[in-house]
Design brief:
The chain is an alpha+beta fold and about 140 residues long. The chain has one domain: Nuclear Transport Factor 2, Chain: A (Roll), CATH 3.10.450. The chain has 3 helices and 7 strands. It has a 4-stranded antiparallel β-sheet with strand order 2-3-6-7. Strands 1-4-5 form a 3-stranded antiparallel β-sheet. It is globular.
Length: about 140
């Protein structure tokens, strides 16, 4: 579905981005985020850098931290590189980060928030151009 050059394909790619971000924090492997995002995506690079910091510290997320609660109504694109914009309501659970020996490193407090994802159709697939929390 994410390979379809359609609104639904863009929505599926935005959901995949959320799932891949959550998995990156659990496994300390952000390679999927790097593969599906533009090098100019600051939010994507922020995730990659944060996961690398956790890996250096020897900690990782213990369990699922983020899930998509809803796809919000279509916003107006404000990024000239994006062909589609998807807003998702995210439920971030309170999760523990643990060290490699299983001891507690820190806790990330959960919240509900809105993620805005800008996507472009590049070389036969959707690519994340920008992503970040919508500040109210």
């Amino acid at each position: 579905m994410a390979r379809q050059h359609s609104r639904e394909g863009a929505i599926q790619m935005a959901k995949y981005f959320v799932a891949s971000t959550d998995k990156a924090y659990r496994t300390n492997d952000p390679s999927t985020i790097a593969a599906i995002s533009s090098k100019s995506c600051a939010g994507c690079q922020g995730v990659i850098d944060d996961v690398a910091k956790n890996k250096r510290a020897g900690s990782h997320q213990d369990g699922q931290g983020m899930r998509v609660d809803a796809v919000l109504p279509r916003p107006t694109p404000t990024n000239e590189l994006a062909q589609e914009v998807v807003e998702l309501l995210i439920d971030s659970s309170t999760v523990d980060f643990v060290k490699s020996d299983g001891s507690h490193a820190f806790t990330s407090t959960g919240k509900k928030w809105t993620l805005r994802v800008f996507l472009a159709w590049v070389a036969g697939g959707w690519q994340i151009q920008a992503a970040g929390e919508v500040r109210q």
